Amino acid sequence: MTAVPSALQCHVLVLNKHYMAIRVCDVRRAFSLLCRELAEVIDHDDGQFSNYDFSSWLEVSEFKKKFEPEEHDWLHTVKISVAVPRIIRLLFYDRLPHRDVTLNRRNIFARDHNSCQYCGRHLPTSDLSLDHVIPRNMGGTASWENLVCACLKCNVKKGGRTPIQAHMRLITPPVKPKRSPVININLGDGRYSSWKQFLDYAYWSVELK
């Protein structure tokens, strides 16, 4: 199969067999699971969710290609085009997801939307660092409530001081998110609106892999 870059960059929400969200995967992984009959597609249409095995999804894709091509991302072969599913359900996996969001650099950057929490500039990851609001030399810990994104300039300016001591102000007080910040970012994209029903009641860590 071939795909335009936007299709390859899509994310797919993965549910266990009890319809609980457990992680997010890329398109290649999703189709690998579908082709091996380890998962099925959960499709949202007109307020209803429907289940399709891979062969049925190929047939549904033909219909979608004819009547609603702009509403989907597509993978193409010589003979057919296949709509990229937004949600898949594992058929043989019933483990419960983790209930805690992992404290790591990726999740902190996602929570803060890759923006310096002192000057507000949105920057690439390479131009950002992590700042301890209460410095470690003052007893500050590595925690959700004490770590924020900071540009290199603001981090150097603040140094080993508190924001008050450095005459700097946090734009948003840091808090621990209830679910993976990466998921929150994806929910801002209309393509992933169908995820919301499966995440509204979630307190799980959903990791992007």
Describe the overall structure.
The chain has helices at about 5-10, 25-35, 55-65, 105-110, 150-160, 180-185, 195-200, and strands at about 1-5, 10-15, 20-25, 40-45, 50, 75, 80-85, 85-90, 130, 145-150, 205-209. With about 210 residues, the chain is an alpha+beta fold. It has two domains: about 1-100 and about 180-209, no CATH class; about 105-160, DNA Binding (I), subunit A. The strands form three sheets. The chain has a six-stranded mixed sheet, with helices on both faces. Strands 1-6-7 form a three-stranded antiparallel sheet. It has a two-stranded antiparallel sheet with strand order 9-10. Strand 4 and strand 5 (about 50) form a beta hairpin. The two termini are about 20 Å apart. Residues about 200-209 have low confidence and may be disordered.
